[in-house]
Design goal:
InterPro entries: Tn3_Tnp_DDE_dom (IPR002513). One of its GO terms (molecular function) is transposase activity. It comes from Nostoc sphaeroides CCNUC1. This is Transposase. By secondary structure, this protein is mainly α. It folds into two domains: 62 residues, no CATH class; 82 residues, no CATH class. It is 63% helix and 0% strand. α5 crosses α6. The chain is elongated and about 70 Å long. The chain starts with 10 loop residues before the first helix and ends in a 5-residue tail after the last helix. The model has no long low-confidence stretch (mean pLDDT 87).
């Protein structure tokens, strides 16, 4: 903890450049300068640029305030942990579909890398969509059979299931059978 709190905020630097900081913020909000252009300009000679240093100090203030809130607010920590867990669950789920080449992108071309990532996301999202459709149909069947379906129970269900998928199995495509429409699937009423 002593390492974290070793450096103090340079409030004088922030105060000196406060009007400049506000001017930059207003320029971004008005669309007169884009964030990437500003970062590029401020990044040049950053050790000498006092406005850049003032922004860094202000960033340290924001970070410190957030960390203090995080430490003192258990609900905030739980929300962040829950969101992080969802993101990690998705990454694990989508990684499961990226099995060729042991999950390593073998291209050094940024466009090819982006395509591979987008294709993988497309497959993962298609499976998530089908999982939601299947779960909705199961819930509808359970409700029809007299089971009580509560929102709280449905809220903890995850669409990141893959144990029912045969990545390397036999696939048969029946083009004669039409799938349910999205409206038919979505017509589910909770208690």
């Amino acid at each position: 903890m002593s390492q974290i709190s070793k450096d103090t905020i340079n409030w004088d630097l922030i105060k000196t450049h406060w009007q400049d900081i506000l001017q930059v913020v207003l320029s971004i909000q008005a669309g007169k300068i884009s964030s990437p252009v500003l970062l590029r300009k401020l990044g040049n000679y950053s050790h000498k640029n006092r406005l850049y240093q003032a922004f860094q100090e202000l960033g340290r203030v924001v970070r410190t305030v957030f960390l203090l809130e995080y430490i003192s607010d258990i609900q905030l920590r739980q929300q962040i942990t829950a969101a992080t867990n969802k993101v990690e669950a998705y990454h694990g789920f989508s990684k499961w579909f990226f099995f060729g080449g042991f999950g390593i992108i073998g291209y050094n071309d940024p466009e090819e890398q982006e395509k591979i990532i987008k294709y993988n996301d497309l497959i993962a999202n298609a499976v998530i969509f089908q999982n939601v459709v299947d779960l909705t149909n199961i819930l509808r069947d359970l409700k029809r059979d007299g089971y009580l379906i509560m929102r709280e129970d449905v809220a903890v269900l995850s669409p990141y299931m893959n144990s029912h998928i045969k990545r390397f199995g036999d696939y048969s495509i029946d083009l004669d059978t039409l799938p349910q429409t999205l409206d038919e699937v979505a017509a589910f009423v909770f208690v």
